[in-house]
Design goal:
By secondary structure, the chain is mainly alpha-helical. The protein has a single domain, classed as Orthogonal Bundle (Arc Repressor Mutant, subunit A), CATH 1.10.10. The protein is 47% helix and 5% strand.
């Protein structure tokens, strides 16, 4: 699922990992888990404490990519 340049260090999706659910690269942590944490009012720090295999840089890069996508589609 590495559709954007540079995404390979952020997101992966493979049928062999979590049945193809998009996860943070190098982990088995679904992106949806971060979204669920943030929607529930939890902080990035709370998420990282619960999922130490995810790097802060991955979270920030994912959020920046999501923001850029939203801004591009809104324009």
């Amino acid at each position: 699922m590495n559709s954007e340049p540079g995404q390979s260090s952020i997101i992966t999706a493979s049928p062999d990992v979590m049945s193809g659910t998009p996860v943070f690269a190098g982990t088995r942590v679904p992106l949806q888990t971060l979204i669920d944490y943030l929607e529930a009012g939890e902080s990035i720090e709370d998420f990282l404490a619960g999922f130490p295999t995810v790097r802060r840089e991955q979270v920030i890069a994912f959020l920046e990519a999501a923001k850029a996508h939203m801004l591009a589609t809104a324009a």
